[in-house]
Each structure stands twice: as C-alpha cells, then as structure tokens.
Amino acid sequence: MDSTMAAGTTAGIRPEHAPGDHPKVAVPKIGVLVANLGTPDGYDYWSMRRYLNEFLSDKRVIDYPSWKWQPILQGIVLTKRPFSSGANYKLIWNEELDESPLMTITKAQVAKLRDACAARWGTAVQVEFCMRYGNPSTRDVVDRMVAAGCEKILFFPLYPQYAGATTATANDQFFRALMAQKRQPAVRTAPEYFASPRYIDALARSVETVLSGLDDQPGKLVASYHGMPKRYLMEGDPYHCQCQKTSRLLRERLGWDRSRLDTTFQSVFGPEEWLKPYTVEHVAELAKQGVKHIAVISPAFSADCIETLEEINGEIREAFEHAGGERFTYIPCLNDDDAHIEALMAEIADGLAGWIA
User: Most buried residue, 10, 75, 204, 334, by most Cβ within 10 Å?
Assistant: First the structure.
C-alpha cells in the first residue's frame, strides 16, 4: 500500500453534531482510478497459471460456454501455456524491481498523473491504479479508496479504443467491486479516446521523434493493434472501426498518403478467424514484396507490455527478417511520455467536469 493511500485510511473526522461514540469518517475527496489489463506477479509456473486462469476464464475474453471451454483451459491450456508464457515474460522482466514492464510503466504514468492532478486541484483528487487481472486488484483498490474518503470516483480504463474484452471487462470488474461497498461512491466511467486530438498528436509526435533519428526512412509504417475474433465485430463491437479511424487520423496528422501506413492485428488465439490482416503474416508479405525497412507502432496499447516488447519485437520482427526484411524499427508505446500524460489529463479533466472546478 502506498503512503498516500495509507494516510487516507487512518485520517478521519467526527461529523458535526454527532455523538461522541460516532465513528470517524474520512475527509471527502474525489478519486481517479486508472485501470490496465494486468500482469502476473512473476514468470514462474504458478504465478503464470494464476494469471492466465483469471484472464482466460473471463467471458468477455473467451465467450465459449463454460462446459466446453473450461475442460480445455484447465486440462490442456493451463498445463502447457504457463511455461511458454513464463519464458516470454522472463525475456522482458524488470529484474531490478521484480515486476513486469507493464507494472513499471503504469507506476510511472500514475506518478505523473498524481503530480499533474495535484498541481491542478491540490489534495482534492486522489489518483490510484488497478489491474483487471492480477494485482493490485480492482476490488482491493476500490476498498481502499472508499475507506480513504473517495465519495466520487472516475474509473478510467487505459484503452484508447473500446472493446468488450478490454474496456467492458474492466468496467464489469469495477462495478463488481462497488457491489461490496456499504456506502457506494458516485461513479463515472471514462469513454474511449481513440479520436482525441491530443492522443493522436502524441502518437504522431512519437512517430516523428523516432523517424527523425533514422538514417534511412522505412518504406512502410505498420500500425499493429491487438486482435479479436471477427465474430465480435459482426456482433456489434466497435473496436475494429475505432482502430481504423485511429490509423486514419494518425496518417492525416503526419501528412502522409494512404500507401505509407497499414493497419494490422496481432495476438491471434484459438481456431476462429480473427480481424485481418494478421500482423505476423502482413510484415512477412511486405518483405517478400521488397520492402526492406518497416516501422511498427502499437496504438491500442497505453504501455509497453508482453504483446509489444516480446511479440512485436520478437515474433513479428523475426517473421519480417526471415522473409527477407533487413531493418525493423519498433516505435515504443506512449508510456509516460509527457505528451501522453497531457492527453490522459485532458480525458480526466473532462471526466471530472461538474465534480470539481
């Protein structure tokens, strides 16, 4: 538990005119709770198994009937996948802090958001973070925020584009946490921000910064988004359309023609058809067509993680090079870049409108 949270749970006042035996209550404040996907506590077998079990048991992620999916998950997937996933996490693990890069980056983002909120609103706003899967859990953080006096909470999933398997499941878990509260706070959920001018500008600036440092320019920029079954799109999930719009707005902000930026989808899982084109196949095809240098960016991720640091910079890079590609440039996620923090602060300010001056 961090020091700001610990202090909030112990401080309290007795309501005016209350009898002497009335319990003290925390000084009222507004909370901002940012949420990301999650991370295992370690890359050992059991840590990975706990994390993957929680993640892959989520009906928003894999919506097959439990009678069909759970025997496969418990009997096959969770017997083998913790080993392979753990090996991949080991490649990128922050050994110094003994945590995944996603955790390290999220902490850095939240530290900057706290400073920005303090500069703007003083002590009236408390900023915390939780993970949908793993720790710190949504319920634990909501419990502590309510105990610390947060009578209003803005819940902010850090997903630029909305998807049922990301934004919606994070919101689901937040609402479940509220069900355990005797005195529920007033709450709001922040909307997706895939078309926010500040977010698009931050993406464009990250591209410009990386490309300006190269001695030769890539023949193609590939915007690789996390994939999902195509069936979800047909059932009404707006994710695919929002990804396409993010790519278009980024390209327009960069002043490029259509041929310079391609939109693809990665992280295919299971036998179904997923959103296409698949990144790993597309980059290989580009190499075969004679494109020797490509750059890849991941606009759907607010922080670098296993899907970017290992999958893109590992599997996808190897596919491009194996097919004849010569130079592969990965453009990092926005992470705790100041332009990204400014974009997130704009969303937070919109979300708190009417709650605070």
Answer: 334
Instruction: Read off the pTM.
Output: 0.92
The verdict on 185 and 204 lying in the same domain is no
Find how far residue 142's CA is from the centre of its chain: 18
pLDDT band at 119 (very low <50, low <70, confident <90, very high): very high
What's the rounded Cα separation, in Å, for the pair 206 and 220? 16
Instruction: Report DSSP letters for 84-112, one per residue.
Output: HHHHHHHHH-BTTTTB-HHHHHHHHHHHH
Boundaries of domain holding 152: 3-192+339-351
Going by C-beta distance under 8 Å and a sequence separation of 6 or more, which residues neighbour residue 173? Answer: 35, 132, 138, 139
**Distance in angstroms (rounded) separating the CA atoms of residues 323 and 288:** 6
pLDDT over threshold 50, residue 6: no
pLDDT band at 2 (very low <50, low <70, confident <90, very high): very low
Question: Three-state SS string across 146-203, please?
Answer: HHCCEEEEEEEECCCCCCHHHHHHHHHHHHHHHCCCCCCCEEEECCCCCCCHHHHHHH
| The pLDDT of residue 122 | 95
Q: Stretch 15-39: mean pLDDT, rounded? A: 82
Residues 15, 17, 23, 24, CA torsion sign: positive
Whether the per-residue pLDDT at 339 is higher than 70: the answer is: yes
Q: How many domains does the chain have?
A: 2
